[in-house]
Amino acid sequence: MENFLTTVVLAFSMSADAFAAALGKGAALGRPRLREALRTGFVFGIIEAITPVMGWAAGLALYHRNRSLDRLRSTRCHRR
Prior knowledge:
Layout: H1 2-29, H2 34-79
Helix pairs in contact: 1-2
């Protein structure tokens, strides 16, 4: 249940971020043509899809880095 709640909160926060960015972009463009609106939506969609993957990859890399540092520290402590 905790994972589901985390996913829901992440989804709402990312959608609110995309909505705010879309409002700003829409206000700057005025009355865009359909092609410009679709391109903007596509770019926002791609960015919103990539950012969680980048965060996951960074977290995974840090997890493995910390595990290797923990092993290094534990072997140094046992040598004394």
